[in-house]
Amino acid sequence: MISSSDVAKLRAQTGAGMMDCKNALEESNGNLEQAGDLLRKKGIAKAAKREGKIATEGTINVKIDGNIAVVLEINSETDFVAKNDDFKTVVNDLTAVVLKNKPNDLAEALRLDLRGKTAENYLIEAAAKIGEKISLRRLAVLSKDNQSVFGAYIHMCGKIGALVVLSGSVDEMLAHDIAIHIAAADPKYLKIDSVPPAVVTKEEYVYAGQLKIEGKPDNIIVNILRGKLAKFYSEVCLLEQSYIKDDKKRVKEILPAGVRIKEYVRFELGEGLEKKEKNFIDEVNEQLK
C-alpha cells in the first residue's frame, strides 16, 4: 500500500506529478530512492526528446562577486517558462556555480559539479521537471584588480545584458552608465584596432564598388573611402561611438585621464538563433504528446 505521505515526499524531491510519483512508488515497491531514480530516468528520456527544439527564450543573468563577474545566457523554449520559479532556480544555481569555479568555456562549465551531478545532467533533469528544453548557451567570466571597477546592466528583465571592466577607476556610476551604453548601442568591437583586417577589407570593397558605379574617379574614391570607414568605425567600435548620454562626445572622450575600458561583454537573448513560430493550439498539442 502506497501512502499519501510517501507520494508527497517523492513529489517534493523530484517535482514530478502526483500520479507519476504514485506509479513510480508502486513499480519500485514503495522504495523512495528507487522511485526517484525511476522518475529521473523517465524524465531524462522525455527531456531527450526535446533536444531538437529551439530554445530562444530565457534570460541573460549578470552576477558580480568581488573581483570576479559572470554573464550567462540561459534559454528556455517559451517566455512563460522563463518567468516561473523553477527556471529562476536553474538560473541562480548555474550562475552561482560558474561564479565559484570560473570555467574557461562552455564545455568546462557543463562538466562542473552542481548539486551532486554535472551541470549538463542538472539541466537535463531540470528540463524533465519543467517540461521544456533548458540550455546554457554561452557565458563569460571577467576579472579585475582592486584599482578597477565592474559596470553591469540588465535590460528588459533579462533580454539584454552588458558587463564592462574599467581599469584605473573605481567609479561605479561611470561603469554602470557605460554598461547601459553598451546594451543600447551594441558595439561589435572595443576600438578601431580590434576590427579584423578582413572586415575592413570587405567594407572597403563594398564602398569602392558603390562609388565606382556612381562614376567617381579613383583619386576621389580614396578620400571618400576614408570618410566612409570613419563612419563605419563610429558605428561598430565602442570607443568611437557617440555616447548615449551626450551625443556630442564619443565614448573615449568621456573617460577621465588614466581610465580605460579593459573589456566588455554584451549578450542579447536568442541572438543568432532562428525562432520557430507556431500557433497556440499546435503548441498545446505538442506538449500533450
Give structural notes.
It is a single chain. The chain is an alpha+beta fold and 289 residues long. The chain folds into four domains: 4-48, Ubiquitin-associated (UBA) domain (Helicase, Ruva Protein, domain 3); 54-143, Tetrahydropterin Synthase, Chain A (2-Layer Sandwich); 147-187 and 245-272, 2-Layer Sandwich (Tetrahydropterin Synthase, Chain A); 196-236, GTP Cyclohydrolase I, Chain A, domain 1 (Orthogonal Bundle). The protein has eleven helices and ten strands. It has helices at residues 4-14, 18-27, 32-48, 79-82, 85-101, 106-110, 119-130, 172-185, 197-213, 218-236, 280-287; strands at 57-65, 68-76, 113-114, 117-118, 135-143, 148-155, 160-167, 242-243, 246-250, 260-268. The protein has a three-stranded antiparallel beta sheet with strand order 1-2-5. It has a three-stranded antiparallel beta sheet with strand order 6-7-10. Strand 3 (113-114) and strand 4 form a beta hairpin. The two termini are 30 Å apart.
Let me know the CATH homologous superfamily of the largest domain.
Elongation factor Ts, dimerisation domain
How many DSSP-defined strands? 10
Q: Count helical runs.
A: 11
The spatial strand order of the largest sheet comes to: 1-2-5
Overall pLDDT score: 89
- Domain tally: 4
Overall, the morphology is elongated
Percent in helix: 40-55%
Please identify, by name, the CATH architecture of the largest domain.
2-Layer Sandwich
CATH topology group of the largest domain: Tetrahydropterin Synthase, Chain A
Strand count, sense and closure of the main sheet? Answer: 3 strands, antiparallel
Strand content: 15-25%
CATH class of the largest domain: Alpha Beta
Please write the string of helix (H) and strand (E) elements: HHHEEHHHEEHEEEHHHEEEH
Structural class determined from secondary elements: alpha+beta
Global Rg: 25 Å
